[in-house]
Amino acid sequence: MDPNQQRQQLKNVAFDLLNDIAINLSQLYDLADMANNTCTITQIENVMENCENHAASILNLPLPNPPPENHEEDAHSDTDEELN
User: Fold this and answer.
1) HSE value, Cβ hemisphere, 13 Å, CA-based, for 12
2) Where does this protein have compositionally biased stretches of type Basic and acidic residues (predicted)?
3) Domains in the chain: boundaries
């Protein structure tokens, strides 16, 4: 492939990436607007999840995993009560 074709492919990829980022920014502005208005938490969470998924797909990253449940807190709360 000649250098001009490579340059054109790189430009196409860059513009596609910029377009994807613009879409994600638009969703983030929507999220901020939703937070300022009366909106259900579920609707806000859905927009946030869409943003995360879109950003992960742009960067070709694995989707974030939910944080593991912390069972240590339960164990410590019993211990704290026994100490008092």
Assistant:
1) 6
2) 69-78
3) 10-64
